[in-house]
């Protein structure tokens, strides 16, 4: 039987071996200048990784916080005495993310630029750059988790960002670290305060990835202008007007005008405008430039088709009759069945928007695994 002293030496040697391995792991950390990536830098350094901070410059325009954010990221890197580098991805971001954003809106879709940004920039150009420059992995401050090589919903379910990451693949997951995977946002703020991070109270970035908190209506208007047209009900009756289909998304209940003199015929007879419940956008008819609106059960659907499906494991799951699907970042996980390219929900819901992503999940033990996703193509109206 080995002595306690021998066992202690073995544990010490094991810890030394672990630290040696970590010290030889080169990590390229995407640093945005926010509290999440800044704390991630501290955690990785404390764990013994060889960290290089990378700021991704993707957009420069009035109102954009690029200079402030880059300065915050640099200050954190200097405090940790780690290398810091800026990568200029503005051209690709403009062509692959922003232009696609405008094109989709013009085509009547509602795109999600954050998903495109992760695919093209963070886990595209940045990941490829890191691998070509002999880094062992990249790290980001996303709230998501890797368990047994799978992308799973993290500890902070309210901040869960797996929806935005469904286009990653399993080979990339072998070379990605999410330092915040077991932390909540509240814990991140507390740990940042313990380390006296100057960005501990910095507000979270909102809005479009790398562009920030902009008015999307103005952003679209500056690029696409206006194109007024009629607002119609499901029967095709004109009941108001809109300023351009690209300003509206499915499920939206404001921003368009309804003629107060209009009468709508319902099962209970005609009702005057002032007695209407709220109208919601149901569909956009491109050829006719019509915005279709309705209220009540008219706004709820339970079936839609998808395109450009992507499975993280690159293999279709075996059981497609027991899936959970999320149709927006903050949406619930909805029981569903996938048949070929058609999704059937157990219950109808409002706001299924073509152009958005449908992301699929499955319960596996105590974890909820993100399997992949697709683009919502067309909504099937329930009869």
Provide a concise account of the structure shown.
This protein is of the alpha+beta class and 383 residues long. The protein contains eight helices and 20 strands.
Textual characterization of the structure:
By secondary structure, this protein is an alpha+beta fold. Among the domains are: 163 residues, HUPs (Rossmann fold, 3-Layer(aba) Sandwich); 69 residues, Adenine nucleotide alpha hydrolases-like domains (SH3 type barrels, Roll). The protein is built from 8 helices and 20 strands. The strands form 5 sheets. Strands 15-18-17-16-19-20 form a 6-stranded antiparallel beta barrel. A 5-stranded parallel β-sheet has the order 3-2-1-4-7, with helices on both faces. Strand 11 and strand 12 form a beta hairpin. Helix 4 runs antiparallel to helix 5. The longest helix is centred in the N-terminal third of the chain and has 20 residues. 36% of the residues are buried. The N terminus is likely disordered.
Q: Going across the biggest sheet, name each strand in turn.
A: 15-18-17-16-19-20
N/C terminus separation = 76 Å
CATH topology of the domain at 17-141 and 179-216: Rossmann fold
Strand content: 25-35%
- Write the H/E string, N to C: HEHEHEHHEEEHEHHEEEEEEEEEEEEE
The CATH class assignment of the domain at 17-141 and 179-216 is Alpha Beta
Overall pLDDT metric: 87
| C-alpha-based Rg, rounded | 24 Å
The biggest beta sheet reads: 6 strands, antiparallel, barrel
List the uncertain runs.
1-20
Structural class: alpha+beta
Helical proportion? Answer: 25-40%
- Using the 3D structure, state the CATH architecture of the domain at 17-141 and 179-216: 3-Layer(aba) Sandwich
Number of helical regions: 8
Q: What is the total tally of β strands?
A: 20
Basic shape: globular
Fourth-level CATH superfamily of the domain at 17-141 and 179-216: HUPs
């Amino acid at each position: 039987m080995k002595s306690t002293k021998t066992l202690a030496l073995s544990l010490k040697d094991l810890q030394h071996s672990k630290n040696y391995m970590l010290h030889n792991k080169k990590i390229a950390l995407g640093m945005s200048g926010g509290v999440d990536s800044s704390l991630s830098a501290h955690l990785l350094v404390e764990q013994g990784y060889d960290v290089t901070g990378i700021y991704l410059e993707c957009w420069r325009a009035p109102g954009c916080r690029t200079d402030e954010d880059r300065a915050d990221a640099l200050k954190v890197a200097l405090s940790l005495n780690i290398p810091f580098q800026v990568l200029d991805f503005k051209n690709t971001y403009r062509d692959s993310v922003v232009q696609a954003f405008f094109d989709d809106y013009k085509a009547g879709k509602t795109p999600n630029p954050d998903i495109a940004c992760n695919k093209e920039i963070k886990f595209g150009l940045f990941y490829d750059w890191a691998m070509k420059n002999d880094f062992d992995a990249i790290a980001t401050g996303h709230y998501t988790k890797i368990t047994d090589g799978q992308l799973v919903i993290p500890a902070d379910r309210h901040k869960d960002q797996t929806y935005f990451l469904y286009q990653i693949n399993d080979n990339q997951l072998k070379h990605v670290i999410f330092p915040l995977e077991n932390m909540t946002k509240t814990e991140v703020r507390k740990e940042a305060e313990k380390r006296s991070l100057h960005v501990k109270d910095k507000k979270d970035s909102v809005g479009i990835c790398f562009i920030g908190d902009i008015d999307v209506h103005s952003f679209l208007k500056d690029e696409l202008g206006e194109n007024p047209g009629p607002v119609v009900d499901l029967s095709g009756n004109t009941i108001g007007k809109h300023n351009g289909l690209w300003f509206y998304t499915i499920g939206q209940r404001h921003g368009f005008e309804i003629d107060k003199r209009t009468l709508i015929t319902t099962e209970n007879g005609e009702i005057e405008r002032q007695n209407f419940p709220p109208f919601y956008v149901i569909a956009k008819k491109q050829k006719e430039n019509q915005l279709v609106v309705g209220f009540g059960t008219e706004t709820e659907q339970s079936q839609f088709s998808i395109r450009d499906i992507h499975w993280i494991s690159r293999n279709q799951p075996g059981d497609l009759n027991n899936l959970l699907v999320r149709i927006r970042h903050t949406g619930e996980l909805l029981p569903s069945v996938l048949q070929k390219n058609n999704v059937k929900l157990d219950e109808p819901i409002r706001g299924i928007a073509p152009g958005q992503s449908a992301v699929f999940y499955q319960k596996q033990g105590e974890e909820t695994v993100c399997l992949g996703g697709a683009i919502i193509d067309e909504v099937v109206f329930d009869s």
